[in-house]
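Q: What does the predicted 3D structure of Peptidoglycan DD-metalloendopeptidase family protein look like?
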Amino acid sequence: MGLCLALALASGGAHGAKTTARSKQKVAAEQQRADLQQKLTALKRDISRTESAKDDAADTLAESEEAISNANRALRELAAEQEQTGVKLRELGGEHEKLVATVARQKAQLAKLLREQYVAGNEDRIKLLLSGDNPNRINRDLQMLAYVSQAQARLLGALRTNLQAVESNQAEAQNAKDELEEIAQEEREQKTLLEQEKGRRAALLTTLSKRLVAQRKDAGNLERDEQRLGNLVDRLGKLIKEQAEAAAAERRRQEQLAQARAEAKAKADAEAREKRLAARAKAQAERERLAQEQAKGGKVKPLPPLKPDPIDADEPKVVARPAEEDKPEPARPSLGPAAPEGAFASLRGRMSAPVAGRLSAKFGSRRGEGPSWKGVFIHAAEGADIKAIAAGRVVYAGWLRGSGNLIIVDHGSQYWSIYGNNQSLLKRVGDAVKGGDAIASVGNSGGNEESGLYFEMRLQGRPFDPAGWVKF
């Protein structure tokens, strides 16, 4: 009967749910990023509102170039998720095989025990006690029966646990398979979207080519592009400062709240202790009074002994569960550096170039009739990976007139690196990056004539020559 009950636990299993853990995590992540993205969108809109330039040909490409960037980033993220989910599925498969082998072995052991017990006649304890046999033998047999029962109970418990583990493993494996199917479907959709947007952009480029060439050579446009990027950097700096101040204020508020709670708890504990000590003193005084009456020959009812004070006694303390409001909030994506202060400056002269290619424009050189270069331009093959020069956090990732798909990384100590004219942005605002991480891919967005990377470095919002810092 016990074996049948244990085997029945293996049946069932709810695999029908299609809402995967991945879907829930994606929704939560997108909700967390919404506030940051809203602030950056408002900031970019405010910058555009103050511009005098109208009808820039590159603006016509903006929507298409942003869509291409988003599709490429989604495909890259999906590929990474697919690999991770595949690894998880293989691990679950290995665990499943081990669990199945263990369950089969335990079932065989249990079946052997039950069979041996049946062959032995299945004598119970009552029969042994009423048999009139030698008491020592009865005691020994009862002890042996107890050992057998304990072994059976342990085996049944282990079997039940492993059967539940098999069911849980199957549910996890099914969820991983559902996630893989979900990822594959998203990949197909993103690839279709990417091809459509590339075709649309190619058609727009053909139509706008002459206007783009003329506008890119116009000195006024170049100055406005430079000013626009400078305004973005300045306003981002202010936004980051405001966010840091708000975070510091929130930390102070939480510390004050925690201190107030600790003080209130200490006060309550002290009051409770005083009450217990007062009650103890009162009880002790009553005992002394009764002792005096007994000494005089009076008959009094003895009181129970005093219990030790739990604060003074060496007793285990019960730890209260934290209240719901005491639990820390989950970390939210934020602006600001992900690298410690001073770490970036220590890398001076040792950082690798963000992309392999030919340096065609250097810091400070003239741009035709327009302003001088505030950064460098590196010709590189379209689609090549652009890598972060050092650890930091992405503070901007979006399309900007004159810069195309633009990504900005804050490295701490007010050092920033800027990467423009990208085909795709592979990181999002708030993402922490390490030196050498791929953050974008080479392109010619923003109306650029050739594919390549526009790269800047800034300190306190002001551009400086990266040649002494990065090995080009």
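A (community wiki): The structure tokens above were generated from the sequence. The domain at 57-216 is CATH 1.10.287 (Helix Hairpins). The CA atoms of residues 378 and 453 lie 5 Å apart.
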